[in-house]
Q: What sequence folds into this?
């Protein structure tokens, strides 16, 4: 469940006293981006830091966070652009205060860039970077026991979800333009899913360690070069080519819902080379992520079931993409595989 939007003031004094040499606090400003956890830019008499407050229940325990920290420390040693946490005076990277987990990181000056701001060369470098992330994670995390399988969405469950979301959207008062679009997309998606139910993909085997949430808000650029991959909360074992496809769908989607396929092609070629992934692996990932998109309504679940509207701005492009991708399925597959 997403966190609430209430203001949570971090205990700066007790936190900074754990870190020798960080100086006295001067200011603490919330960082605007981020849906699941909370971040702050902390300025002190010695410099600037990024303070992360872990709130997302599935990943906010000390053991899980420490594993993420260990991974980023080792990835940093391999030369990847990451920002490992600072260790306190006792050598710990996770501070638990008042039942909440915190981590202090160096502040990275940079900005986020989506696919519209990337050249073809920048798209290629992005694919190389993610390929290197996957191969380096294999080195630092070790092997995973085989046998875990990932089931694809069941259309009968999606039909029930669509009916429930339609009921909630139609009952919304006062009705807004967003609600009208939601009803339109739900009806449209129900028809599409009925046409393509027979294309549900088979289970996929886990294929390696992945970042788990690789998208524009989790990558900082300094100029044209990536400066830091951040937010490793969803580090885990998944079919890794699917992360490559999901990332492309987030970086290269246009506001009208199409993918910039020439940039996708440059990105995918570089990823396949860096990750030693073949065309068949990418084709299977394209099919599974397309199916996932066709069955996914997380933004509407947040709005109508959880009364959380923070993801609403993502809905127009995201919902249009599922329709466009279905229509242009072969062109999308070819962009990832040729």
A:
């Amino acid at each position: 469940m997403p966190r609430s939007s209430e203001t949570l003031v971090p205990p700066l004094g007790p936190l900074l006293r754990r870190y020798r040499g960080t100086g006295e606090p001067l200011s603490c400003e919330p960082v605007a981006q981020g849906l699941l956890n909370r971040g702050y830019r902390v300025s002190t008499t010695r410099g600037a830091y990024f303070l992360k407050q872990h709130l997302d229940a599935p990943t906010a325990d000390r053991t899980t966070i420490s594993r993420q920290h260990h991974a980023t420390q080792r990835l940093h040693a391999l030369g990847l652009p990451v920002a490992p946490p600072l260790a306190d005076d006792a050598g710990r990277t996770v501070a638990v205060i008042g039942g909440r987990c915190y981590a202090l990181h160096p502040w990275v000056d940079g900005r986020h860039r989506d696919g519209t701001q990337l050249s073809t060369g920048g798209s290629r470098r992005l694919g190389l970077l993610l390929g290197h992330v996957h191969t380096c994670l294999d080195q630092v995390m070790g092997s995973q026991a085989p046998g875990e399988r990932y089931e694809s969405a069941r259309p009968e469950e999606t039909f029930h979800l669509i009916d429930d979301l339609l009921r909630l959207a139609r009952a919304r008062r006062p009705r807004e333009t967003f609600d009208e679009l939601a009803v339109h997309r739900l009806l449209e998606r129900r028809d599409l899913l009925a046409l393509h139910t027979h294309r549900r993909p088979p289970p996929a085997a886990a294929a390696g360690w992945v970042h788990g949430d690789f998208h524009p808000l989790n990558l900082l650029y300094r100029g044209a070069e990536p400066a830091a991959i951040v937010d490793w909360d969803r580090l885990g074992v998944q079919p890794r080519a699917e992360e490559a496809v999901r990332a492309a769908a987030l970086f290269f989607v246009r506001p009208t819902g199409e993918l910039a396929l020439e940039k996708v092609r440059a990105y995918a070629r570089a990823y396949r080379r860096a990750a030693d992934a073949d065309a068949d692996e990418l084709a299977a990932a394209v099919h599974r992520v397309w199916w996932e998109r066709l069955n996914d309504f997380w933004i509407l679940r947040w709005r109508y079931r959880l009364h959380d509207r923070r993801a609403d701005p993502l809905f127009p492009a995201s919902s249009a993409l599922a329709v466009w991708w279905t229509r242009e399925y072969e062109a999308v597959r070819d962009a990832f595989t040729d």
In short: The CA atoms of residues 58 and 265 lie 34 Å apart. The longest helix spans residues 120-141. Residues 1-7 have pLDDT under 50 and may be disordered.
